[in-house]
């Protein structure tokens, strides 16, 4: 298994777009804390906090798969928007 911990986000996003699952998993690992922080701000009536975290993780996956570096925002900013919305 390749160690991706020294790679920057843009490199990981490029590798992920080429089908490298290890790079995608590293991005998920890096941004899990952000997902949890975003989920903490919301309350889901009748739901569990883990449900919000799961939805946020789906938003993170969407961000990983749709981010474009030339759009002018950092990946973190883009990911946070995808996680929340």
Structure, explained:
The radius of gyration is 13 Å and the shape is globular. 67% of the residues lie in helices and 0% in strands. The longest helix is centred in the middle third of the chain and has 20 residues. Helix 2 crosses helix 4 and helix 3 crosses helix 4. The chain is mainly α. The model has no long low-confidence stretch (mean pLDDT 93).
Index terms:
85 residues, 67% helix, mainly alpha, globular
The computed structural class is mainly alpha
Please give the count of helices: 4
Average pLDDT works out at 93
Overall 3D form = globular
Q: Round the Cα radius of gyration to an integer and report it.
A: 13 Å
Give, in order, the helices and strands.
Answer: HHHH
The helix content, as a percent range, equals 55-70%
- Proportion in β-strands: under 5%
Give the number of DSSP strands: 0
Report a brief summary of the structure:
The protein has 85 residues and is mainly alpha-helical. The protein has helices at residues 9-17, 21-40, 49-66, 75-84.
Secondary-structure blueprint:
Layout (H helix, E strand, L loop, with lengths): L8 H9 L3 H20 L8 H18 L8 H10 L1
Helix pairs in contact: 1-2, 2-3, 2-4, 3-4
């Amino acid at each position: 298994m390749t160690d991706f911990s020294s790679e920057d986000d843009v490199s990981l996003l490029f590798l992920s777009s080429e089908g490298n699952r290890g790079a995608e998993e590293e991005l998920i690992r890096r941004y899990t804390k952000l997902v949890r922080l975003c989920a903490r701000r919301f309350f889901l009536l009748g739901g569990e906090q883990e449900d919000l975290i799961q939805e946020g993780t789906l938003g993170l996956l969407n961000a990983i798969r749709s981010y474009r570096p030339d759009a002018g925002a950092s990946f973190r900013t883009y990911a946070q928007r995808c996680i929340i919305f």
